[in-house]
């Protein structure tokens, strides 16, 4: 993220820059004021995103490339959004386990994944790429802390929505190292 002194309010910073920029060429002074306005808009959008999120990971926003503010066509969602032509079939069955990880050897949850528990104790995928993963669901007896409920727990890492420098628009990257 770019440097921003947290003790200076952005509007006061912009006003101060306008006063200090009187010796600057008009285009440079105008750029500094526009940059301050952009940063304020991005901070407002960042606060909005973090106030509407339902996951642990925080969201940062940065644009050190140009003067674009928040994208107008970006919609942040906290739930699945099914595309056109796709129909979801409600889950008909759930597991009877009370502790899915302890009972995994018995065939409770891993039965749908060819008798292999899809996740290890750290929540990392341990089955071969391309095999489907069947997570526990609302019809299961196990609780929300079940180790077979990984994806549905949402984002656990801090993310940054950033403006790309190669002309491709906005991108997303993590602010933390994620184990493979």
Q: What order do the SSEs take from the amino end to the carboxyl end, as H and E?
A: HHEEE
How many strand segments? 3
Task: Tell me the strand percentage band.
Answer: 5-15%
CATH superfamily of the largest domain: SET domain
Give the rounded overall mean pLDDT.
78
CATH topology of the largest domain: Beta-clip-like
Structural Rg: 23 Å
N- and C-termini, Cα separation? 24 Å
The low-confidence runs, each spanning 5 or more residues with pLDDT under 50, are: 1-7
CATH architecture field of the largest domain: Beta Complex
The helical percent reads: 10-25%
In terms of quaternary structure, the protein is: single chain
What is the count of distinct domains?
2
CATH class of the largest domain: Mainly Beta
Biggest pleated sheet: 3 strands, mixed
């Amino acid at each position: 993220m770019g440097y921003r002194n947290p003790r200076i309010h952005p509007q006061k910073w912009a006003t101060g820059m306008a006063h200090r920029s009187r010796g600057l060429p008009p285009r440079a002074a105008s750029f500094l004021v526009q940059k301050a306005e952009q940063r304020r808009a991005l901070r407002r959008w960042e606060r909005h995103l973090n106030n509407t999120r339902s996951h642990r990971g925080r969201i940062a926003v940065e644009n050190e490339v140009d003067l674009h503010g928040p994208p107008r066509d970006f919609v942040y969602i906290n739930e699945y959004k099914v595309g056109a032509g796709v129909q979801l079939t409600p889950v008909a069955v759930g597991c009877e386990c009370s502790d899915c990880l302890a009972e995994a050897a018995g065939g409770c949850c891993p039965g749908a994944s060819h008798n292999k528990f899809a996740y290890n104790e750290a929540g990392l995928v341990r089955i071969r790429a391309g095999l489907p993963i069947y997570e526990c669901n609302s019809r299961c007896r196990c609780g929300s802390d079940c180790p077979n409920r990984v994806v549905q727990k949402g984002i656990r890492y801090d993310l940054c929505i950033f403006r790309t420098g190669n002309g491709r628009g906005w991108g997303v990257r993590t602010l933390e190292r994620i184990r493979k």
